[in-house]
């Protein structure tokens, strides 16, 4: 079989450029010649990275080659197609082989060879098949046909799953296993473990030796919902997500939660924040992670506080002023590129320690890659079409079969749940705005969302039970005024508010008059204003402010002496000393906010005023921290080399390669290198080895091989006289030294760096 180096030399420049573009890790750092490139090509981590992009059919082709021993001898393409069976059309096999050869995972199209490094990635049991046994497939099939039901079930279980199992010799199964071993259908690995030979598994599997062949991704689970339905639902959810995060930001600003000493936000505080807005803790964790990633909240030491608190930055006000569409686009773009995993918040790590939101333990470096992988699978469907949860899981498994099933499940669950909460997907389908977000800029995504949203309305439905229904998205001015005078009960396509005495008083505290409240409802209600609402507004307005509080520490004044009497009695019942100065004036040493809270809890409706008599709003103002906002670094692939740069690199490698003489044992093929080294050690011959260091540079060593063990060569460095260890995977060529080289010593030779320890 040709060596890796020979195979590279046979490629033309455009094929080498395509290889370097498909496997960019081969160019970092730039290889000095084709010998170094050959060494990297079969390096385990590089091969694993190349195989991560393969789909299920690619892996099945490689598994078939492994079963056919393609790492030892060339396999004719016709034999491969026959082994795969009729479910693998010739066109699909040819396409797969071409794609695999472009990644240097196979060599040749008509006579196919597979590097041994690929076999190592496929594992000990490629396609669930063990090493060959003593029987032929025909003999194994005849022996299996004569088994009883108990013995046959054991063989079938091992043939369709892991071909290895343990047994208790004293049990009934153990006795059946002994009979199978005696018949050559099983073999002992140790005293308690048996293994199913390859031929037996092939006999049981019949015409599907590597299982059902899947050339295309599963088509099951695709559901067409309609583009307008998906876009409209996702758009409304996007607006709801923006409102939710704005509310979260406001809650953090009014009552900043403490930061943990180890970093992050404690699970108890996370649940408190979630309860304030009626969400679950996982949604709350997503929100705070996004706010932190956007630089809208940070942990800081406020004045007169000994502990750090999570507080909004001054940039939070700019975010709150953004339109719904622009705010969503910024949130969604941040989420796609977020290198954090909010879904793990509240769970436990391997040490059974609780994982807190905003803590370093939630780091997820592959987050942007994995999210885009899942969203891209949905983007491949027709607009308006989605996948059921099982359909998406099956497609993910086909697209990325080398990932462990539990890892795929975690990625899917986190991505779909978070994308749904943010309005990127709806009904398992990617919205038009979500598609634009993947391919274009956040500004373009905001435009797409605006097109999907219904026109905002400026009318509401006021009902007799004092609820107010917004039949769609409200214009910003009406939404702000309604949020000031009513409490939000439920959000969605029809948002429901409720007017209460406390909510009306909140509007009056903010300086709104009762006349303005009446005018708002009468101007925007489609159903008229119930008499009960007018009475409520007038009642709160009539009682509001008849009792005034100011600072003395605090003073109380009212034109009604009876109210002063009632206030003094209520305060005394709570243990607060209030002293009358005149029939309509009293003072107290209690702070103004404290006395206001107690009197309102007693049923009074006092108003706060300053020294000039103007009304004061005692509502806690959101905290802000001044800090320069750090621009979000969106995820992107490392910059790829241009075609001109890759062609220049190929030209340099070919020029350097022409200066290296072709010698026996060279070529970068692992089996020939091992054979040459073992032969040199057995006959005590000196050899030159070409060694790739950590920087990719090619270094030649004059060595007397002593022993060749798994992964390591132990030899005497002839130029230094020292015994050194060499990692076998870094030896890219071996050549026999002539007599002049073998007699060389170290005098006058330049220093060489030590090889990597094995």
Sheet with the most strands: spatial strand order: 18-19-17-16-20-21
Low-confidence stretches are 662-668, 745-752
- Portion in beta strands: 5-15%
The mean pLDDT is 86
Helix/strand-derived category reads alpha+beta
Radius of gyration: 37 Å
Counted by DSSP, the helix tally is 31
Q: Report the sheet with the most strands, covering strand number, pairing sense and barrel closure.
A: 6 strands, mixed
Distance between the termini: 28 Å
How many β-strand runs?
26
In which range does the helix fraction lie? 40-55%
Shape: elongated
Kindly describe this structure.
The chain is an alpha+beta fold. Among the domains are: 137-205, no CATH class; 222-452, no CATH class; 461-524, no CATH class; 547-604, no CATH class; 662-758, SH3 type barrels (Roll). The protein is 45% helix and 14% strand. The strands form eight sheets. Strands 18-19-17-16-20-21 form a six-stranded mixed beta sheet, with helices on one face. A five-stranded antiparallel beta sheet has the order 25-24-23-22-26. A four-stranded antiparallel beta sheet has the order 12-13-15-14, with helices on one face. It is elongated.
